[in-house]
Amino acid sequence: DIRNDLYLTLERGDFERGGKSVQKNIEVTVYVLYADGEILKECISLGSGEPPLPEHRSFVLYHNNSPRWSEVIKLPIPVDRFRGSHLRFEFRHCSTKDKGEKKLFGFSFTPLMREDGTTLSDESHELYVYKCDENTLFSNHALYLGLPCCKEDFNSCSSLPSSLVFQRSAKENFWIQTQLSSTKLTQNVDLLALLKWKAHPDRVMDILGRLRHVSGEEIVK
User: Fold this and answer.
1) Shortest CA distance to 81 belongs to which of 194, 197, 190, 184?
2) In 106-131, which positions are buried (b, 16+ CB within 10 angstroms) versus exposed (e)?
3) Which residues pair with 89 in a beta bridge?
């Protein structure tokens, strides 16, 4: 049986008050987007028997700039659409005075796969928050995909454009946790190299040695 399910937990966030006298009522909207920017229409599941959704909206905590959601959703993303795809998280303040009014003030994102072909690791990820407003158009996703999504991504960026369309909010951060259950993809770069051994047959023994060393450490743990 083929399986490729990514379990995503919306953990928490730290957001600025933004000049308001009270704290915000923050809602997170989650999207899965293909490499071409198309939103994956039926790839978010809230549980067994629930119909697939094109997006997920978190619950809202009243006047809380440091919300803790701990919401878990399932993303059954097709294997052939995994590479190049990314997650986008949009943050909105939900007004209590004007019922139904939601103002976009920021977003975060993360690719599902790294350049070496491995997937997001099974751990907590601290993502950057970029400022934007309700008039922001995400039709050209390349405008933000060239930016670092987290600290590790920033350290690997060779250079950034002098004038950025989106500015990072230095005092705001967003945390997610991911766990992948897949029969096709892996987070282990050595296992990935072993699966592609025909490309570099001379490296097989070295790769096997590293895998044996990792397996031994896991047994000790």
Assistant:
1) 184
2) bbbbbbbbeeeebbbeeeebbbbbbe
3) 30, 108
* Burial classification of residue 91, based on how many CB atoms lie within 10 Å of its CB (0-12 exposed, 13-18 middle, 19 or more buried): buried
Cα Rg, the chain, nearest whole Å = 19
Confidence (pTM): 0.82
Q: For the ranges 12-26, 186-200, 203-217, which has the lowest average pLDDT?
A: 186-200
CA distance 118 to 120: 7
pLDDT tens-place string over residues 34-79: 888 899 888 899 877 788 899 999 999 999 999 999 999 999 988 8
Whole-angstrom CA distances from 141 to 5, 11, 34, 72 are 24, 24, 10, 25
Query: How is residue 213 written in tokens?
Result: 């060393």
Cβ atoms 40, 85 nearer than 8 A:
yes
Most confident listed range (113-117, 168-172, 213-217): 168-172
Percent of the chain exceeding pLDDT 70 equals 84
- In this structure, which amino acid lies at residue 25? N
Query: What CATH number belongs to 4-185?
Result: 2.60.40.150
Domain assignments of the chain as residue spans, ordered by start: 4-185, 188-221
3-state secondary structure of 46: coil
